[in-house]
Design a protein that fits this description.
The protein has one domain (16-184): Lipoprotein localisation LolA/LolB/LppX (outer membrane lipoprotein receptor (LolB), chain A, Clam), CATH 2.50.20. 9% of the residues lie in helices and 41% in strands. It is built from two helices and 13 strands; from the N terminus they run βββββββααββββββ.
Amino acid sequence: MWDQTGNCSTLHTRSRPSSAVLTGCASTSLETTGRRKCCFDGKAIVLYGVEQKKYSHLPVSGNNLDNALEVVEERTGTDFPLADLLSNDPQRSLLSGVTSGGEVDTAVIDGSPCRHFFFSQGADDLDFELWLEDNDQSLPRRLVVTYRSLPGRPNFLAELSNWSFSIQAPDSDFEFKPPVGVAESDVQPKSSGSSEPPK
């Protein structure tokens, strides 16, 4: 959630705990605790606003998460800063458009030694920093994105933890069943020329 505070138009985020469950890239469940849920079953993506008690159903072709997030971005204008990490090919997706960058430092995050990388993307006018565990798995532990062209140069920060590769999620976890009192709603198209930060 992005807010405007004070007279200097500083933008900031209020982070909330989130969880994600993926099986390959054909089924995905993403949840921001208490506020939003996103389910993709390989055929359609459902966006559910818990507080609004509304959901939208968007058909997706191609049976992969890359296509699903692209549909949402095109239809709603919503930016998913973590989409590159959920891609079928995270390395290619993250480094697309990068004009400069590389490894800059090391750090310890929650007791895990990590390699710290910094990159600039010219076309998108943003910088991002990525911390990967310094081991064979190289799991991402932190991502910071800075939007250079937006007022106040807002940042998106994600701390990634509790990785598990042993979860056997049933198909039902990726199927959205609307709770009682929740209504389907049409997706509001994005407004042209908007420079809205990610939600």
